[in-house]
TrEMBL record:
Keywords: DNA-binding, Transcription, Transcription regulation. Residues 34-53 bind DNA. Gene3D superfamilies: Tetracycline Repressor, domain 2 (1.10.357.10). PROSITE patterns: HTH_TETR_1, HTH_TETR_2. This is HTH tetR-type domain-containing protein. SUPFAM superfamilies: Homeodomain-like (SSF46689). Residues 11-71 form the HTH tetR-type domain.
């Protein structure tokens, strides 16, 4: 009982830090916002902030690790008779489902986060490093799920799929799209890429 209450309190604090940070990033700008200001928004100390996040960047990318683990698990649980493109499409669908659940965020906050990641230099740099690591791990997982694929082919498939989604979203970001619109664009990019990847079986 006590453990459950403690965990719920931690989740509320985590959510307050994420919401407060995004609000400040929109009002003041990412670089101009301090950790002390984020902590104040959540009514906690700066020391408490570091119990949840190591930096401002970590607040923005709060769910990256869990989303990667979900994708890796989906690849590792290849179903009987499932093709390469079938697995990739399932991974993308499950990723979309998790993203559109807006854990911790409203749809508006989720859209703001996407814009921040794609426009703030510090977040762009962090996103590129994380994207490179993510794609390598997914490529290795795909290769293990389908040993008939070379690692190079698995990497090409993962890179094509993720690259198409990321670039299609970036190309339309200045059109003031809603989060729902962005997901439609991302899904279309995935469909186009999956069609081209059918040569892999």
């Amino acid at each position: 009982m006590v453990e459950g209450l403690r965990e719920r309190k931690k989740q509320r604090t985590r959510q307050a830090l994420i919401e407060g940070a995004l609000r400040l990033f929109e009002e003041k700008g990412f670089e101009e916002t301090t950790l002390a200001e984020i902590a104040e928004q959540a009514d906690v100390s700066t020391r408490t902030f570091f119990s949840y996040f190591a930096s401002k960047e970590d607040v923005v990318f709060y769910d990256t690790a869990s989303r990667l683990e979900l994708a890796l698990t989906a690849m590792e649980s290849r179903r009987p008779g499932e093709t390469v493109t079938g697995v990739l499409l399932r991974v993308i669908e499950e990723s979309f489902e998790q993203a559109t659940a807006y854990q911790y965020l409203t749809a508006e906050e989720a859209a703001l986060r996407v814009r921040l990641i794609l426009t703030e230099p510090a977040l762009q740099a962090r996103a590129l490093l994380m994207l490179f690591d993510t794609q390598l791990r997914l490529a290795r997982a795909l290769h293990e799920a389908f040993p008939e694929l070379t690692l190079a082919d698995a990497a090409a498939a993962v890179g094509a799929l993720i690259g198409a989604i990321k670039l299609s979203v970036m190309a339309t970001l200045d059109q003031e799209q809603s989060m729902a619109d962005l997901w439609v664009i991302a899904r279309r990019a995935a469909e186009v890429t999956i069609t081209g990847l059918h040569t892999l079986g």
